[in-house]
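Exercise (ungraded).
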Amino acid sequence: MAYDPDNIFAKILREEIPATRVYEDDQTLAFMDIMPRADGHLLVIPKTPCRNLLDATPEQLSAVIATTQKLSHAVMRAFGAEGVTIQQFNEEVGGQEVFHLHFHVLPRHEGVSLRPPGNMGDFDLIAQHAEKIRAALE
Ligand code: AMP
């Protein structure tokens, strides 16, 4: 399957649509998920194109995983989380909806379930959560 350069995350990378960015380096970008399944739910993507895990290069995977680990520590500090769930979906049948490789980072607390998918978050609250994560990265 070919990479579609007009997917929504490619548009975020080109700054054609807004995103609540929390971290970036030369190879990766992390931003808040607009339908958070947990407080602090964010996404980590490579800055270069690939659909998902199946067509990613070892260099893309290595950069994205390193940033996913960094942001996992940051969300645990920011939210006092006891763990994180990392999710990554491949192709439609695998649950993928946006076809630019991304890893979900979901802070977890004992006894707290993930919220159901597909519910738009509160913009101001997401912005507050992003600020906590940025502060935890410093
Ligand atoms: P999936 O491809 O199944 O991992 O799902 C795509 C994820 O991207 C979902 O969690 C959506 O809430 C999230 N999402 C979709 N559009 C945006 C956007 N413009 N900004 C941030 N997150 C988004």
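Further reading is listed at the end of the chapter. For now, observe: The chain has a mean pLDDT of 98. DSSP finds three helices and five strands in the chain.
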